[in-house]
## 1
Amino acid sequence: MTESSSNDESVKPPTWFEFVGQELLKERLMVHIKAAVIGKRPLEHVLLSGPPGSGKTTLANLIPPALYFDCPRLTLNGVGLDRKQLIDRVCPPDFRGGVLIIDEIHAMAKKDQEFLLDLLGRGYLGNMHFGWITVIGATTERDAIITPLVDRFPLKPEFEPYTDEELGLIVQGMAERIDLDMTTETAQDLGRACGGIPSNAKQFVFAYRALLSTSGKIPEASQVLDLCQVDPDGLPQLHRRDDNRSSRPRPAGVLIKSPRDAERCAEVWMRWMGFEDARLTPEGPDSGIDVISRRAVAQVKAQTVPAPLEQIQRTYGIATAEQREHALFFSLGGYTPQALAWGRQHGVALFEFDLQGEPEAKSEAARRLLRDGLT
Ligand SMILES: Nc1ncnc2c1ncn2[C@@H]1O[C@H](COP(=O)(O)OP(=O)(O)OP(=O)(O)O)[C@@H](O)[C@H]1O
Ligand SMILES: [Mg+2]
């Protein structure tokens, strides 16, 4: 690396093995990569989802070289990508097959996403056919991707929060790539200040270099944070693993025998997710809301039939009218396809209870609440 480089490329991990963290995700993905190489067949389509700055684009671009040394690849961005541009770009000589990366795939309009279905299904884009194709999508908003397209990706790895230690290693790796001497302690301090997001490490590393070259002295972490105008405690921790709900003891199962049991169960789970003031609304004529909290409203349906669209819309409508940030829906009998699609599009947290009262997430908003709790 040249010392003058100050762009993103210069600090990016150049290989799969230098990509720090996401160990389980990488391990699982590597099983499929190896199987594809051994079987001499294309890797299944992969949809990577995770919070902004978590490393999706970087990892997506590290998959083709992990498959084959000179694996053909084309990277496109979903922002403004329509049907016509797809046909123009995804064709010889730019692309004859191999790996097609579509970054920010959720940014494509729904009708253009539909156009991709045949490519992922049968390898057709319009009347072009690709015998060998793997599509890798990267997204921060899985809910904004049409369900049939999400379903066409056999592999859907989700990024997990990084630990502070991993972020320290990310800072250290970036510093090494631009030939900076940095102590492990400083790297760890800066890693802790990243707020759980690897992309924040870049500004710290570049500020460290600026201080070093202007003063000629090894900077302290506090000076770096000061230059970046970041509070000495670091950026707010958005996605740290310690905050992860999954490490907390989950509520005990209860057998749901009546509608009130289901409502009580929803109340207990909402408190666990972080809605600490969640409480049942009084029994009586159905107002449409069964559990309320300062930041959320929830409706609970204990019927064994799928909850219909109108009920989801009603809960969402009440949340909006009462200015509560979260609309939650718990259903024992699942959801109609229309209810699912609409709820996902509008960010409703859709849960399905099993008979032991364990909620399963049916939308990204619900997944996030179960995984990270209130943030
Ligand atoms: N696990 C990691 N190890 C080392 N560096 C990383 C890692 N994850 C991200 N980075 C670095 O952080 C920066 C941001 O990563 P990247 O652009 O891949 O994130 P992203 O999830 O695609 O973000 P966005 O949602 O904004 O598109 C890059 O400079 C990358 O080099
Ligand atoms: Mg990206």
## 2
Amino acid sequence: MATAATSHHITSHRQSTDSTTMDKVLLRRAMGRFATGVTVVTTRTPDGKYEGVTANSFNTVSLDPPLVLWSLGRNSASFEGFHAAKHFTVNVLGIGQLPLSRHFSTPKLDKLAGIDHTLGHGGSPVLTGSLAHFECETKSIIDGGDHVIFIGRVINASCREGDPLVFAKGGYHRAVTLVEEITS
Ligand SMILES: Cc1cc2nc3c(=O)[nH]c(=O)nc-3n(C[C@H](O)[C@H](O)[C@H](O)COP(=O)(O)O)c2cc1C
């Protein structure tokens, strides 16, 4: 059992004073302790515009049927486009693609201009050199507070050898192997 001193040590960061209003600084800092990969989610909108957004909210959901999810801020410039498109591609970035993460997280009029890609399901761009990609049909769009959650059914996927780009504590990292548990 934790002593009072131990538990004080564990929770010594800033805390919310009001149980109904989470301290946003604490929340952001705590969420940043959860390391993720980095993806660029792309689409082609019904009126032919290409969109791309850096997203670390991507995760796998189900193998059978094959489902993945990611969330997009309601205030994003690309929100209407992803909502209307009915399909998207998730591009998983390798460490050599850090500049692409910065590129797609900075607002621009035409984010795909000058970026090597091919066109996947529904015309969603597949970024050349990505570590993996998932071409998806949008299955559901779920309310997620100031974000919406997109669930997609995977239609096509690919992967290649390389090191994944890791995002944690507000910065970019390379994964270091501690123990090999599953070989794939
Ligand atoms: C590492 C990283 C991860 C991000 N993850 C997300 C995310 O999951 N969802 C989101 O809406 N924005 C995320 N962002 C912010 C968007 O990439 C950024 O707001 C972008 O400008 C949105 O594109 P848009 O303005 O063209 O819609 C992330 C940014 C970075 C650097």
